[in-house]
Amino acid sequence: MSVSGLCHVCEANEAEHTCPQCGTAVCDDHFRQTRGLCVRCVETAGRDDIANPGDGPDDDDIHRI
Q1: Which residues contact residue 2 at a Cβ distance below 8 angstroms, ignoring those fewer than 6 apart?
Q2: Which tens digit of pLDDT belongs to each residue from 5-53?
Q3: What is the rounded CA–CA span in Å between residue 16 and residue 3?
Q4: Which of 3, 9, 41, 55 can bridge 30 by disulfide, Cβ–Cβ 3.0-4.6 Å?
């Protein structure tokens, strides 16, 4: 799919991706290839490249699908 216009996050770079979760058009800097989502959706999900996943709050209560 072709994406045109500016990134909806930084409004400076050309949008090259559309987030499949929220539909936001974003540039490479604001798209996480490993997750396939924009940075806003990754942050909302709380799953952005965590350095030490065991250091968070009670990890037993986190359910990942």
Answers
A1: none
A2: 999 999 999 999 999 999 999 999 999 999 999 999 999 887 545 444 4
A3: 6
A4: 9
What global pTM score does this model have? Answer: 0.64
Residue 57 lies in a domain: no
Structural domains in the chain (count): 1
Query: Is 11 within the bounds of a domain?
Result: yes
Cβ distance 20 to 36 under 8 Å? yes
Nearest to residue 28, comparing CAs of 39, 40, 16, 37?
16
